[in-house]
Amino acid sequence: MPSDSLDTLHDLFIHELRDIYDAEKQLLKALPKMSAAAQSPELKEAFDNHLRETEEQVSRLEQVFSDLSEKPTGKSCKAMQGLVAESNELLGEDANPSVMDAALIVAAQKVEHYEIAGYGSVCTFGRLLGLDDVTELLKQNMAEEEKTDKLLTSIAERLNAAAESGEQSSEAGGGEGGMGANRVRASGGRQSSGGGNRRGRSSSRAKSSNSRTKSSGTRGRSTSKRSRSTARSRR
Ligand SMILES: [Fe+2]
Hints:
Layout (H helix, E strand, L loop, with lengths): L8 H29 L3 H27 L10 H14 L5 H32 L3 H34 L3 H5 L10 H17 L3 H12 L4 H15 L1
Helix pairs in contact: 1-2, 1-3, 1-4, 2-5, 3-4, 4-5, 4-7, 5-7, 7-8, 7-9
The structure holds fe (ii) ion (FE2).
Fe (ii) ion binds next to helix 1 and helix 2.
């Protein structure tokens, strides 16, 4: 791929920022489709809110590039192309609506985790390079990604139960928080453990989710390990 050379950490910083910028722009097009495909009002609202946040994030990134006297364009994020392509594939499936909601959360959390990895790195680079103002803007984006990821985990705890039982997820959407999360394992254990365990170590909600998982016949932390290796072996 033709690109500027990466001689310094600053070069890598700009390179990664362009990657993130392109990723966010791709997401601006993908989120409305995901929202349209979601059945749960709660999930739809999460996608719509994150679309607005993503617009803000793009503006902050443009501010970052302007502060650095650099162009934001010039890189296409292939990872996001892949994640969006997978999401689009899902949207074409003939799925039970509540299972589709669970699938959309999987797709969205993969995106959030990718973005969190990218923002984590550029925040570190920015700090090391002494670019405090720019780093502050990047931290705001990162905080929004993390908040969205947590929200998706908490929505999943409600909707996965509906996906498993084949109920309409709109019923579950307004239901009791965390109800039936012990049944997550059959439909979306991977999803919930992917996003849930990571965030959840400090939250009582996720702790209780883990213990529910345990009581349902799988084993807490080793479940997530197994899920990850299963996911890997499927690729
Ligand atoms: Fe984002």
